[in-house]
Amino acid sequence: MEKTKVKSNKRKSIHEPKMNNPNIEKNDDKPDLLSTSLASNGSLVSSYNEYDLDTSDEEDLRNTIGNVPLKWYDDYEHIGYDLDGEKISKPANSKRNDELDEFLEKMENPDYWRTVRDSQTGGKIILSDEDIEIIKRLTSSKFANKNVEEFDTSTFFTHDEMKMPLSGRPEHKRSFIPSNWERLRVGKYVHAIKMGWIKPAIKKPEDSEEKFYDIWADENDADKRKHLHHLPAPKCPLPDHYESYNPPPEYLFDDEEKEKWEKQEPEDRRINFIPKKYPSLRLVPGYGNFIKEKFERCLDMYLAPRQRKMRVQVDPQDLLPKLPKPRDLQPFPNTLAITFKGHKSTITSISVHQSGQWILSSSNDKTVKCWEVSTGRCIYTWTFETKCVNCAWIPVQNLCLFSVVFENIVMIVNPKCGDKVISSNTDAKVAEYFVQFEQSNQSKSVDGNESDDESSEKKNTDTRKPPCTWKFFHEKKNDPNYKQGFRIQLIHQKNLKNVSWHPKGDYFATVLDDKNSNSSVIMHQLSKQKSVRPFAKMNGIVQQVVFHPFKPILFVATQRYVKVYDLVKQILVKKLLTNVQWVSSLDVHPAGDNLIIGSYDNRLSWFDLDLSTKPYKTLKHHKKAIRSVAYHKKYPLFASCSDDGTAIVSHGMVYDDLMQNALIVPLKILRGHEITKNIGVTCCKFHPTQPWLFTCGADKTIRLYSN
Amino acid sequence: MNGNMENSDHSQLMVKFFTKNTKYSIADNPYSIPASSTIQNLNALIIGILKSDDNELETDFSTIEFDFYINGQYLSSTLDDLIQTISDIKVESVIEIEYAERNAAPQPIDSIILDDWVSSIKGLNDLILVGCYDNSVQIWNTSGNQLVLLPGHTGPVKSVAWLNESQVMSSSHDQSILIWHLAPKNKLIKTQKCVGHAESVECLDISEDRSKFVSGSWDKMIKLWNLLDESELEENSVSKKKKSDVPTQIKTPLITLSGHGENVSGCRWMDEKNVCTCSWDHTIRLWDMFSGQESQCLKSVNKIYVTIDYSRVNGLISAGCNDSLVRIYDPRSTEGNLVKISLTSHTGWVSSVCWSKKDQNLLVTGSYDNTAKLWDIRNPKTSMYDMVGHEDKVLCVDWTWENLIVSGAADNTFKMYQA
Q: A424 at the B interface (CB within 8 A)?
């Protein structure tokens, strides 16, 4: 036992350089590294933890005998030679027992079953519990390390897109062939060793190395870390073009700039010298401010409080609001389905019939056309004297009428399309109005002793001029206008902009194209054949008026504001500040609490009447003036169309819950209209029941975008 | 036989060929062919086998081409590609490939220019019934002669149908359906006017036994009318037509069915009892006409149905939608809501569909993208043949028993093809 060199000592010589003489035979084993136990037969069996010691398997192979059976050394004291050519002694426990000893050990040693012989050294090793565990796992075809999950594919298959995906390409053949280069290299080494050019490393006597005492060893980590906190000095800006001795001409000052530079205070100057051009670097004089600037820089660095800027790592995507994807917000109009062709000039407005079967369009070619939606077929055409500005269906099912605006006239027309019963009922109703109108007219003319009762014109006896005169076409006179479907004509004093109908179909409001008049809004009542000016005074140019879908409220869009009037109390309820230069159009959500405006300065603003008088959201997606905006009656959609030739459909969900604000998501840019004379799309309207959008434009077409 | 096929280093497949047409049947031998074979390779193979069998060289094989199907799926690119899409085929086993003679391309016969848009078209024998947007119904023959012109509607004609060679029907925007009775020399004897709809009548279809017909309208209603019961007809005393001495009779519907929420855009008899209708309210509904009840409702996702047709050969419903798809449903399946096949290659609303009367796999469609297409439903990705030539929206197509395909369009023409 004494004469055998313990294998583990050699290990120590590798791992513990402080040990003085590793080759001296030792039998007192360090308990922390080696836990040796005396076997019953007296042989020393080491059961150290192999994995604490070696860093790789190569460490063991310091025996240079090569790949020969160990039994050739059975008769020797040593088992081979180390790197320096010294003999390696056999471990103490490597002695082979005879059969009897073997049997006795088998009977008496409880660790016999876990004792194995090291094929490298011939020593016995008692396997630890972990080793046995590993062997068990390996024999049952599992991973050696129990921390490895066997079928964990999560690291291989992730939802993340990889820039360099794993390839299933088989390994190249050359990776299996021994490297020729390596062979040559090894050959060189072998030759060098043979020739004696490479000598074994000369061991340094380790004693010679002086030892120092680390005085900071017990200083705590916190103090150390404090000093490690390095703050870099602020960097000088890099030289710019104007600092060159030969700057590009645009950096040189002209007289104006020079004068300006000279006038400025030295602190305000962007550049602290005048750029100047020299023909060669040799001619550049010394820089006068050099010392001063360097001194200032030193002062800056000395005095400036160094502060580490905490940069927040923010993904720009996170700053964007979380909006649902457009494809989750189906249905919405997204493809051009039908083009309605037939007009000869810019189409000014369109209006879709309640049923969704017909669409009406008014155009600058002095016509109004009625189209069949499903095929794009023009069914009727009415011709008027001048350019038609606006057309609108009456928004009720039981009447078949629409209004056309041209010059200063509103014409109410019965198109005789759709249900014939409704059409004839409408005619009957208009005739009834006519009778009423005649009677009231006569009574008035009797009162006022007026003589011109021959015509069916009506003059208010008010002191003020009447806002407009009514004229009925009727069947009896065999009027050609009646045959065309014309029923009522309202002649105003000024040219008109548009007409908007009350949802119940009895009232309608007209807007005069008049910059000076205080009363450019006129309200008409069909059943009483009366016209009134609802507002005594109105600041700003009125652009459009819209009735609330079910409350007696009128929305008036002026150039800068949207005014909300209560028609019953006759008061101004609210004044919405649009923050735009010029409002072009207005539409009210079918629920009545939200409205959108489009403006000539490219902006679309959404107002929540419950929220504030300022826009809840402003969308600036159009590149040119917005001409028209519209809400869908059934689907949570709204659209805007613009002079840039596009219409934009957006999702605008309004919740019943008062705590939740509307959700606005732009969905789709619909293109197709050509820009003619700088005018793109003039009007957009939704289909009443389908998620479809109609647009009309200066390119003389109406387009239907369907889902 | 095919040197280039054997040289290719791709994997080989064991295949067997079979056909339903005994004229072209070949011996039931398995062949080993490369997986990368295309339809041309297979054609060459089959024709080569046929030629070697046909000793007397009776038939000329130069013009014959075959289409190939595996499990009813059309072979469009290579065998390999198709087999990968079919799950229950094992590459190791012998694959059975069906081949059938390719349908010849429809041959254009004539194109006839009318005065106005052609809204509806129906063929019978060598006669073609045309409904026109100028309020007229016209009968033409295949040689391009106008036989009859029937003015009488006061609105554009939306739908037409043949009752027999001397009786035709038409429905119009003027909310009525007219039944025209013609004498042998195409002289109008009398008309029957069916009133009841409150909006334009968009579609009509006559039952197989010619005893009743059904109509659908923009007023959301479907009406069933009787054709046989003459006693119900009453003389129209109120008729104001002074110049025409043709008697007009008024007819009223048997039943009115409500259920659709929007325009009823198409209706079709499926058998003696059942009718399928499609509507703009995104549904196809099946109706039992004996009880007057709705029996089934197939919903789509936000797409309107523009047209519908039912094939008596294969029992499938095909419907044209506004998203340029033709959706094919199987009304017999329990999960009827599921689209069986979607035919995708139109780029506009599909305005009309018509199944072949004889072949269970063929149908023709017309679309607002100015084309009519002939489809084999085993190949839903692309059509077999595109019939281009119309310069505006194709509004109607029809495929008669005599394999005459007619299509009418908004360019004022209708075209005839021999399929």
A: no
